[in-house]
Design brief:
It is built from eleven helices and nine strands. By secondary structure, the chain is an alpha/beta fold. The strands form two sheets. Strands 1-9-8-2-5-3-4 form a seven-stranded mixed sheet. Helix 2 crosses helix 4 and helix 10 packs across helix 11. About 40% of the residues are buried.
Length: about 300
Amino acid sequence: MSKERTSPGTRIAEGLLHLQGRLPLGYHRWWGRRLAWIVGSVFRYRRDVVMANLVRCFPDRKYEDLQAIGKRFYTHFTTVLTEMIWFGACRGPKGRKRLHESHIVELTNPEELRRIYETCPQIMLLQAHTGNWELFGGFNQYAYGTSLYIDPSALAVTYHRMSSPFWETVMSHNRPAPVLDQGFHGYVASDNILRFVLENKEKKFLYNFIADQYPYSGTGSEMDFMHQKTRVTTAAAKLAVKLDMAVVYLRYQCREEGGYSITFVPITEHAGGQDALEITKQYYQLLEEDLERQPWNYLWTHKRWK
């Protein structure tokens, strides 16, 4: 976590967001549904990118179906944003209780991750821009009441640096809000993750990577994903191979009644000696299965195919 001094403007903005976040979750979801029409139909935010991505990824679907998927996507997208504001106010014991009681995310098979965590020195948890990817800081509260417990000091999550210093600071405080007072220090920029992993290679850690990003220029490999050639990054898989980590896919689905479910799908329990590209292919195969089931449940505004 960054220890840089926060500017007065940032502190004021964070204070306003915190006050807004203390309103009920239902209020934020209500606003999310209404913002969907404003963002998708009035401002048409990246509407061309969304529809182009859907046409390329679902070539067998009728255009009317793709329009319906696009409409539902914007509802999902804006709800992710408003839920994120609510989540940022879930701090301290009272905030964690509020988060737990909301059941915003539920784990379907925590015993599977516990088994792997107890038998493997380190875990590489691979997720994508599905579900509400901004809520990774509530991991232990989602496991509350189950046999799974992972100390926040043994969790690390990676992120891509933002170009705006303001949002870089705000999000560094918002994303891991529930665990900031519990010894969590694993909010790590992707360009620093190698050093962080090597410094902590003797400790038991769970690393959470959002691994579906477009690779940095001149890097990555190519594979088939969603009916088209796709450039992918194998950085997370290479780290797992290097340190013989277990690799687990995080299946993050939307529940019809609201909120999300997480299912842990093992890819390998010993990545050492394996091919990083093959591990990455298995990750993308699982992601493709999820997108076929819930096609709106993805960050379609992202220019994934360039």
